[in-house]
Amino acid sequence: MFFGKKSSGPIDCLVVGLGNPGKKYEGTRHNAGMMALMKLAERYGVEVSRKRFQGVTGEVRIAGKRALLLFPHTYMNLSGKAVAEAMKFYKLDVSQLLVFSDDISLDPGIVRVRRKGSAGGQRGLQNIIDCIDSEDFVRIKLGIGAKPHPEMDLADWVLSRFTFAEKKALEEAAEKAAEAAELVIEGKIDEAMNRYSK
Fold first, then answer.
1. Would you tell me the crossing angle of helices 32-43 and 164-186 to the nearest 10 degrees?
2. Confidence of residue 178 (pLDDT cuts 50, 70, 90)
3. Full-model pTM
C-alpha cells in the first residue's frame, strides 16, 4: 500500500469527493462524498476551486504528503473520467487514490473505511473502477440511508435532501470521514478502519 510514503512526483495522493455539481444538487444525499471532501479542505483552510481535470481541485499538505483534492464536475455516473485524467497527468498508481462516496446500505451518520472492493451499486465508484480498471483503491463511505419504500425510484432517493436530523448526522459523519482520511494518508489505514468503521 502506497499511503504513508512520498512519491517522486509533485503529488503524493489524489483524494476525490463524489457528487453532482450545481446548486440544484446541493445538500442532496448523493453529494455526501463531496461534503466530506469539503470538510477535509476546511480543516486545512484550502479552497477546492481551481478548474482542472473536468472538475475543481485544491492542493494541500496532509501528514507531510502532498494531496490533490478533486471534486469531479462530470456528474456522478461519469466520475471516473475526471479521476483517470488526474491520475494520468500525475502518473499516480491506484494505491495513491482515496475516494469519499455515499452509501445507501448505511444509515446517515455511519462511516465505513474500505481498502478496496466492488462498487456496491454506487455508479460513481463503478465508473471509477471501469475507467482505471481496478477496484484496489481506498474508499471512505458515508451512509445516506436506504429507500423508505421499495417501490421508490433509486435516483429520486439519492437526489432527495436530508431531514434536519439526518443533515446533522451527516455533518458529523463528514467530520469523521475527514479525520479517517488523514489517517489513511498518513499510512494508518488499519487504525482508520478500526476507529471509524461501524
1. 60
2. very high
3. 0.93
